[in-house]
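BUG: 3D viewer hangs when loading the predicted structure for this chain

Environment: internal workstation, default settings.
Expected: structure renders.
Actual: progress bar stalls at 90%.

Input used:
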Amino acid sequence: MNNAGEKFLTESGVYKLVFKSRKPEAEKFSDWVTDEVLPQIRKTGSYEAPKKKNGGKEKLSSVNQMAKNISGLLGKAGVDDKFIAAEIVRIYTDNGYPVRSPIITEDNKLWDCTSIAKELGIMSMNGKPHDKAVAAIIQKLDLFTDEIVRTAYSRNGHDGITVQYKESVFAKVREWLEENGYPAVIEYQLANGNVNGCKVIYNF
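Structure tokens produced before the viewer hung:
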């Protein structure tokens, strides 16, 4: 969990889930890593997959299984269905089986704590968007389950999950600020029950 209260499933976390699984396909993956990948890394310092006779294109059955496994993992992690669908599209496309992207009909923009802070001018003392202060405000709000959206992301070779919020949450944060007179310190509760505060300045 980061300072904004957002949860991420890292690439290493995915591997840990796979290694703990007793499913046949997971055990096959574990055997491949321990019997082929790691020994080659120890010998050469890197791993290079063998060239495929079919021009590097994975068999469709293998891609189907990969998509099924990833879909299951993301589903258990609470990722929204439409973003799971987008990730499955990426898997098929990257492996040479391009498919049409799902149409996301929802018009509402999704916000994370940093983008909310930037839009509402909630800044830290050094002038940067204060995502932690926004997370502190959200901690005080009564949110509905469907106002919180978990999305998969891929950045710098790492896959994970981030928490974003619907437009209604943005409106609730703005309303809270107005009702509380744009306080200079926004308090939040720590996991141990203690109360801390975020010092903020406002840039309108």
